Amino acid sequence: xxxxxxxxxxxxxxxxxxxxxxxxxxxxxxxxxxxxxxxxxxxxxxxxxxxxxxxxxxxxxxxxxxxxxxxxxxxxxxxxxxxxxxxxxxxxxxxxxxxxxxxxxxxxxxxxxxxxxxxxxxxxxxxxxxxxxxxxxxxxxxxxxxxxxxxxxxxxxxxxxxxxxxxxxxxxxxxxxxxxxxxxxxxxxxxxxxxxxxxxxxxxxxxxxxxxxxxxxxxxxxxxxxxxxxxxxxxxxxxxxxxxxxxxxxxxxxxxxxxxxxxxxxxxxxxxxxxxxxxxxxxxxxxxxxxxxxxxxxxxxxxxxxxxxxxxxxxxxxxxxxxxxxxxxxxxxxxxxxxxxxxxxxxxxxxxxxxxxxxxxxxxxxxxxxxxxxxxxxxxxxxxxxxxxxxxxxxxxxxxxxxxxxxxxxxxxxxxxxxxxxxxxxxxxxxxxxxxxxxxxxxxxxxxx
Length: 449
Hints:
Blueprint: E1 10-12, E2 25-26, E3 29-35, E4 42-45, E5 53-56, E6 63-64, E7 75-80, E8 83-88, E9 95-97, E10 100-102, E11 104-107, E12 112-115, E13 118-124, E14 129-130, E15 138-139, E16 142-143, H1 147-161, E17 166-169, H2 176-185, E18 194-198, H3 207-212, E19 213-214, E20 226-227, H4 229-232, E21 237-241, H5 248-260, E22 262-263, E23 272-273, E24 277-282, H6 286-291, H7 297-303, E25 306-309, H8 320-330, H9 354-368, H10 378-383, H11 387-393, H12 398-420, H13 425-432, H14 436-445
Parallel strand pairs: 5-6, 17-24, 17-25, 18-21, 21-24
Antiparallel strand pairs: 1-11, 2-14, 3-4, 3-13, 5-7, 7-8, 8-11, 9-10, 9-12, 12-13, 15-16, 19-20, 22-23
Helix pairs in contact: 1-2, 8-9, 11-12, 12-13, 12-14
């Protein structure tokens, strides 16, 4: 938990990621190791950088420290219009700004960040200067005119022009699949197939066969031979979604396939050559998964030759009206009929389901029209007071009061699960640990649409 401080040099409390501001004028910062094993080293954190700068002991961290008390990916730094944003990444030993332990903070220069036995001095480089974000509003199917998105586009163009493996990081619903397809469409492999493999939607006992294919009779139900996604993506791009959910027992086989550019079908004896570009995506912190023994570090380094971090929608609020208008027309709505109150009451809404939730909100309004207004927006539900306090104030019998609380919990829980999985009941149920049929039962009795 972040602690409060009255010190004027920094603000503690709310995480602010790169570009979570309307301002194009940004100040660069210099971070210098003043004490610790890497003393004397320094780095410039620029306002034009497309992704957060990670600090830790991992090889993929730009600020890599030789301090055993520092986590693999300990803290993230990014320049915003308010200053240098510092976000602790659930580190083992915590992050301190001067004498205060923080979860997140905004620094303005002159502070000291302490992680492990290392102290990092933060200074500004001088006057603010333009962020140099290009005047682009899209990359392929990715849409966004906000500063954090415009910073990303040049990086996306460079990555698309190469053939290296790419890891896309970001919260659920931020558009990782859309970006992956856009990278493919802008690459030299655009004429080849784009194949999607979602690690969360395939039964564990079928994962290997889905990845590498299987021969006839390889297992019960294998009545014909089938190629796996590596063969299907030959000459094109294989997008492995939610790679962090892949069972560790299969990670070694996936690594072997990537290293040798060959696969062997389940039940088969021969090796099949493959020519695919790998783009993977995850909502998880794979560095933490490695630290906890759930992900292989050698596979991680094979996947993360290039890395893109997609911002959450709450960090690119300028894009909400633009995205809403785009979704409205793509879903069949006429642009001149776009409701002026489509986003009313949601100016400060955090959009926990990100772009996917906004898409569903627009689709719901387009399908139901004014009837959608009869259901209170999620923003109201979340801020209209504590449900337990309201039920207690009604002085209802115990059984009825408990029923009301459970009803509200089930409605909010399933609403959020559906928003995070694009309205897909199967995925929402699996992620919630609930059977699909029971998920439907909960939705129906809680008034879910």
